Amino acid sequence: MSKIVNIKNKIKNFKKIITVPGDKSLSIRWVLFASLANGTSKAKNLLMSEDVLAAIKAIKKLGIKIVIKKKECKIFGKGIDGYKYKKNLTIDAQNSGTLGRLILGLLINSPEPIKLVGDKSLSKRDFKRVSDPLSKFGTKFKLRDNKFLPLKIYGSSKLKPIKYLENKGSAQCKSSIIFAGMRTYGTTIIKAKKSRNHTELLSKHLKLPISIKSGKKFDEIKIKKVKKINTLNYDIPSDISSSAFFIVLTVLLKNSELIIKNVNINPSRVGIITILKKMGADIIFKKIKNYKGEKKADIKVVGAKNLKAINCPPHLNSGAIDEFLVIFLVAAKAKGVSYFKNLGELNHKESPRLKWAEKILKNLGVRTITTNDSIKIYGNPNLNLKFNKKITIKNYLKDHRVFMTSIIAALSFGGTWNIHDKDSINTSFPNFLKIIDDLKK
Ligand code: S3P
Asked: CA geometry: angle at 274 spanning 364 and 366, to 5°?
């Protein structure tokens, strides 16, 4: 099968109901919490993607049994101290920053050194941002060039609690420290810039000794040593970050309508909805429900008639951090100049995404002014590429979100596209192209 996807035609209007796979952040967190529980935890709708399978492989290496069936995944936890640390253990986080960073928090008391490796993309990403605070607990690290994978973690049995200021708005850093705090006597205190709060909500749901004081820009989290974690049966709601591609496709298609079923709408994740609504999109949540500390709903989107530019308030950034590439496609078609700032973190993702945004928009003939941490997009409401405009997207470190954004751009704006590395979607959204095909029927 070809690894290049060729698109020559825009998509026609649709009126559909779809379901996207389980949330990636929740799936990885469920695997990690369940691996520490006393007994058998079950998950339904666990995301079956490479990132989550890497998490499953990681805990298997730590001696935890897992059974995956079509509809259900079972993890046989052996308690908070149930990991088996073999000599010369290597854990491969593959493409997953979330797995790589979160699991380090759980390994800080390992009696054996453990090597952490990742793929080409993950090996370019900053791990010092977690090894620095984790070292303060008493753990030691050796990183390649003091910053990158492969790294070695040398756990300690004499951990001390820490005070930590997380000011990047990184949920991965915050969660890694929460996990480390769960292993440490005393109270670990984290002041964290707002970011997705699934780890905190799951900890609360599991009645772990955590307290959260929610401020406007920062939260204060206190976590004490955890003695026992109860089993966690979880029906994972669908991923809003995966939904985002279809939300944008619908917004860009005047006479279309889409319902996406049962999506996690945690307030720390719905930045895309707030941003697109400000730009004139018509999106509503239906059948809102609370679920084990999280919120879920069906999302209804209709094609927008008039899109307007946005000067995007930076406080919305962390809630939309994985969605900016597709959000920029909406800005490309909006009337006026959109401005997105304080987005340096985008260049720390699976690929340098601000740079890729600039490249994709340039291919579309859309003017941008891009800096290291901001982008101005000169929108064109009549954006429409000629059939003979050829665009090739390749060498993007197989960043799944670059691939999917390119597909949405091709289907929305026309032109003839060759989009390489189709396999990139396997990290987060293996049936993405199947859903696109369903929308075409
Ligand atoms: C994630 C946090 C975010 C996000 C990533 C998933 C998580 O990364 O980009 O896709 O599950 O905690 P940062 O914490 O680096 O912002």
From this structure: 10
